[in-house]
């Protein structure tokens, strides 16, 4: 049973965890349990703990996930239980709605819970409804609060970063304080990412309890983690940052995004396995869709593109086994002889037609060429942005996001369109739909290169909802379209974006040595099949670091492989080696994308899809010790595994206890091992 109930108690069960809610003596819905599986009888013995959605009022002095003001300026909620609904079944999973209301004021609050029989995720969100005849002001409405059981100590895990350095894992003691993880930028951000993990300070990669949650929202967000002197810890989180209010008119409702939690008793590795499985099965819009090997021309050409050069690159890309050719920024805008369009950062954004100087006959000749070479075609777009020097801006200056009497902040020479306006979203949908429908486009890279700045309270949430709506409509109208999410690299990677995209452009930093840490952080929650990873040139354009081609490939092959180098400058030997590596990647792609990912000691990552095992070992600098055998995980101890390159066989138990020998020459920087269980 995924959902069981008796008066005042609800028990949600997943394959390896349980979550229990109990009505407290004050009528408030409270967390009774989040941890290992329980029976209903065991759950019955538990007292009610912290509130499921902490409110203001009474003797409450902690973080309030729900803050409202009624017409008479009274605030807070006094809980009244109204009832509950359970929908679904044991096969597809269940949706529990605990229906609550204020004891006096016309505010209904639904707490939602979603569990599925093949996932350890508990999805939670909140709906508010104003049933009165005057407005209610909502200062904050979190999706959910999550409380972890009392432990001696707590440790917080999250990621921080910046452009070119996203997803850096931080694991620190949790302060006895309120720790705020947030983005106020209108996108989920590269300086933080909307997920959190807590453990008791004793979890390792393979053992120990870890509690985690990730928010399905691509705009501003806030997760406040609390630890009090008394030894309690947990967090409340949802969309929006502080200072933004929502007016809930009579009869109106407000639904939050989902904040999904996963508990694992198998350490940080165990929690990542569960996230990867959950995202692949239940978040991605087209589960199981194969990620093509992409060529993207950005690093090779930046804005300096032409039809002939793109055709030449396409020929070389096809020659090494690329399956989808993507033309990045710089292909659009302009009027022949009158306006240059998007030939640099300063002009043309918003003018979504092929640049007539660069593509005099439109995109068809290039697309036909790409298709003749056996590849599909993709295009870069940034639908939310506009350069002041563009025809769109000259025609519709009123579409830009700005506030009266305030300067409109330009970042990267661009402004944002007010996507909270339905007419703007409609325009964007029409442009994109036309592009895709008339040009045989299989893939869109949807970029967003600046944060939201001057925006009124009413913009932040509808803006993101309209981005989602445009993506959802495009996908529905073009079911085979693949979308890559991007915001100057990994600035908008979250469960909301992943519900509408196949992959995320992880980072503009393509230096293989630095990329290992970026990918390590990305993979804590998000699966490898969604992690866009290119092989680019050496020395690296951003860092100047020279690296061997095989090393660059081995790092990128552990995600969704793309090629992003200037193939016109690659030697015949490089192209030949690249072709062999792309062939090898296609063999291991199902294992990397569908298998279980284990982070191993000593700079190694393993993917397992029985009977196949793939192990990447990297040595980004010679200071890294990689001579020790690398111990594999999760194999059949009685199994025998054959090395696909040497034919040598290994015992599963020895691979796990003694490890896979790595007899590397001193100058090797990476290795790929493919094993198959043969007995
Ligand atoms: C930022 C992206 O991260 C890059 O890959 C590239 O698409 C540029 N934008 C283009 O302007």
Automatic annotation (TrEMBL):
The gene is galA_2. PANTHER family: ALPHA-GALACTOSIDASE C-RELATED, GLYCOSIDASE FAMILY 31. Its EC number is 3.2.1.22. Residues 614-672 form the Glycosyl hydrolase family 36 C-terminal domain. Residues 28-248 form the Glycosyl hydrolase family 36 N-terminal domain. It comes from Microbispora siamensis. The lineage of its organism: Bacteria, Bacillati, Actinomycetota, Actinomycetes, Streptosporangiales. Keywords: Glycosidase, Hydrolase. CDD domains: GH36. InterPro entries: Aldolase_TIM, Alpga-gal_N_sf, Alpha-glycosidase_related, GH, Glyco_hydro_36, Glyco_hydro_36_C, Glyco_hydro_36_N, Glyco_hydro_b. The keyword RNA-binding does not apply. It catalyses: Hydrolysis of terminal, non-reducing alpha-D-galactose residues in alpha-D-galactosides, including galactose oligosaccharides, galactomannans and galactolipids. This is Alpha-galactosidase.
